């Protein structure tokens, strides 16, 4: 397939582009800057200049492709207002991509998050989260999955709280950045809450499988580690950086604080059995050993 990819030069996107190219697909990559365009070309993709707010560019990219993988997000967690703006921008972009593909039976694979279910491990059968700081993302993904009834092979790959590679990425990466800034490797609450995780290279394989195989209207879990306790994550970070490990206020994490404090383990049993996806790369705790002091 000729695949249009948004967010193709980020930590996850670059792995997805490499996975697609390595399995016989070609890639048209959205590039919001000259640096991103050069990175896309170096990876072997054709760049298409524009950002998530450029809806006409998104429509043009989707029109040229046999399928679409959407990964781009502003990742601005500095304030509730900034996060709300990022969610609104992504929602409009997804709507434009989806409408372009209506009636085509072409695949649209979007990114989502594993849901939080109180008291148990979440599964692929659970609905996406539609409340809280990023609830708008869940509502946007639900609208995309509903396009299955309008001739779009829409699917969602649900990513865990940390997608990592060489000790970087996701919630664990944010913990590391905050530890470097504050001099404390902290965790909210008692640190017993569990976060699921996956290596970026394993997640990339699932995005490809969803593009190639997944039926319309389905959701899949890119979960390798069902749930690591946050204090264990903080302990590795603290040891690698030579910093004390201790509980810190939830407010330390800004608008993501309530999510950081929540126990949210997740399963990928159905995904592994149905799409024959099997993670092969290091676990989160193993990968965090790559953090440089």
UniProtKB/TrEMBL annotation:
CDD domains assigned to the protein according to its UniProt record, in alphabetical order: SDR_a7
NAD-dependent epimerase/dehydratase domain boundaries: 3-216
Record SUPFAM superfamilies: NAD(P)-binding Rossmann-fold domains
Species in which this protein is naturally found: Rugosimonospora africana
InterPro entries for the chain: Epimerase_deHydtase (IPR001509), NAD(P)-bd_dom_sf (IPR036291), NAD(P)-dependent_oxidoreduct (IPR051783)
Chain intervals with Basic and acidic residues compositional bias: 275-284
MF annotations from Gene Ontology: aldehyde dehydrogenase (NAD+) activity
Origin organism lineage: Bacteria, Bacillati, Actinomycetota, Actinomycetes, Micromonosporales
Superkingdom assignment: Bacteria
Name recorded for this polypeptide: 3-beta hydroxysteroid dehydrogenase
Compositionally biased region (Polar residues): 263-274
Chain spans, region Disordered: 259-293
GO CC annotation: cytoplasm
Entries under PANTHER family matching the protein: NAD(P)-BINDING DOMAIN-CONTAINING PROTEIN-RELATED (PTHR48079:SF6), PROTEIN YEEZ (PTHR48079)
Signal peptide stretch: none
């Amino acid at each position: 397939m000729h695949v249009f990819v948004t967010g193709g030069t980020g930590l996850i996107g670059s792995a997805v582009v490499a996975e697609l190219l390595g399995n016989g697909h070609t890639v048209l990559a959205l590039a919001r800057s000259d640096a991103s365009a050069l990175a896309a070309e170096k990876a072997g993709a054709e760049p298409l200049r524009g950002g998530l707010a450029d809806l006409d560019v998104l429509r043009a990219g989707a029109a040229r492709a046999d399928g679409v993988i959407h990964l781009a997000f502003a990742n601005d967690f500095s304030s509730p207002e900034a996060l709300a703006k990022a969610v609104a921008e992504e929602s409009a972009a997804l709507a434009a991509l989806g409408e372009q593909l209506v009636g085509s039976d072409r695949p649209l694979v979007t990114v989502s998050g594993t849901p939080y279910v109180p008291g148990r491990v979440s599964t692929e059968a659970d609905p996406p989260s539609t409340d809280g700081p990023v609830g708008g993302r869940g509502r946007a993904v639900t609208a995309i999955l509903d396009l299955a009834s309008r001739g779009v092979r829409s699917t969602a790959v649900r990513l865990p709280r940390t997608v990592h590679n060489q000790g970087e990425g996701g919630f664990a990466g944010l913990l590391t950045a905050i530890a470097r800034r504050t001099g404390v490797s902290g965790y909210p609450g008692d640190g017993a809450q569990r976060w699921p995780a996956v290596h970026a290279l394993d997640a990339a394989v699932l995005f490809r499988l969803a593009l190639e195989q997944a039926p319309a209207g389905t959701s899949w879990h890119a979960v390798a580690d069902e749930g690591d306790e946050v204090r264990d994550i903080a302990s590795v970070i603290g040891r690698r950086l030579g910093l004390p490990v201790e509980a810190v206020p939830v407010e330390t994490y800004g608008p993501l604080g309530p999510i950081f404090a929540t126990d949210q383990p997740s399963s990928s049993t159905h995904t592994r059995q149905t799409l024959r996806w099997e993670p092969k790369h290091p676990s989160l705790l193993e990968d965090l050993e790559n953090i440089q002091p």
